[in-house]
């Protein structure tokens, strides 16, 4: 959606909110963006005098440090009675399946046909499943940045809203390191800090707040990093087994820091036959491979869940790397 479409969508969203009540907010599988933007959205609606419930299908304990985190109702969103709500707001979900546990629900969930859905997301390949969609085709760092754009003139940006939105932006930009950090992102962050967002608290909690045992486990898992060259591409990969609980951020940092590679792959075993594959790239548009496997994403960050165990998934990836040419990007 271009700037003009977004402006129209923004107006429709504001009108709908003004003339509606009984909202449910649903957020994507948890990260700082999903959780921070969910919490900010909840506070915005409360401030506007609306009834609202905030749902997550997943546990959110890891994000306890975010203001108002206890507002989350943990409930499998495929089991909600949507007739209780006039308007649904879906945040940060590039696909509807991001809202629930796909291993528990391999069949695709759809909202009941009469549900009014506001879909606010920053993944450009979002299938626009909403009654109103707000999805820029140009780069936006996070759902949090979009919420700021939509609501900045409508509400008081409290310290807690500012903190939740800044956490969303810091999370999805890797603390302003990824290419989704635009001049606008930095402007929004600057405004949020002027509204007293607790940026040092966020950074400490996101990057430097890991349980010792989990840090040890992460180091153990990383012992299994491998590096491979297939046609013109050199990549690192690591396989994570179900039971291994590790520090995701630290894993990414270490994998990305390897000088020799173009990209890296994390293969997470999901039950007997499924694998969640995450691709992160330094200079090669890896989303092509994710797409060929049925997933999607951005050139430097993409993913897919496949119905093979990790070793087979890796063979498929290697086969695709032999037969397809990937675009390069520069930074
Ligand atoms: Mn996001």
Describe this entry's structure for a reader.
With 331 residues, the chain is of the alpha/beta class. It folds into 2 domains: 3-207, inorganic pyrophosphatase (n-terminal core), CATH 3.90.1640; 212-323, Diaminopimelate Epimerase, Chain A, domain 1 (Roll). It is built from 10 helices and 12 strands. A 6-stranded parallel sheet has the order 3-2-1-4-5-6. Strands 7-8-9-10-12-11 form a 6-stranded mixed sheet, with helices on both faces. Strand 7 (226-230) and strand 8 (233-240) form a beta hairpin. Helix 3 runs antiparallel to helix 4 (159-173) and helix 4 (159-173) packs antiparallel against helix 5. The two termini are 25 Å apart. 41% of the residues are buried. The mean pLDDT is 95. Manganese (II) ion is lined by residues 33, 92, 122, 142-143, 172.
Please give the CATH architecture of the largest domain. Answer: Alpha-Beta Complex
CATH topology of the largest domain: inorganic pyrophosphatase (n-terminal core)
What ligands are attached or bound here? manganese (II) ion
Number of helical regions: 10
Q: Major sheet: size, sense and barrel closure? A: 6 strands, parallel
Structural class based on helices, strands and sheet pairing: alpha/beta
Strand order of the largest sheet: 3-2-1-4-5-6
The global form is globular
Structurally, how many domains make up the residues? Answer: 2
Number of DSSP E strands: 12
The name of the CATH superfamily of the largest domain reads inorganic pyrophosphatase (n-terminal core)
Radius of gyration: 20 Å
**Low-confidence segments, ≥5 residues, pLDDT <50?**
none
CATH class of the largest domain: Alpha Beta
Classify the helix fraction into a percent range.
25-40%
SSE order, one letter for each helix or strand: HEHEEEEEHHHHHEEHEEHEEH
Overall average residue pLDDT: 95
Gap between N and C termini: 25 Å
Strand content: 15-25%
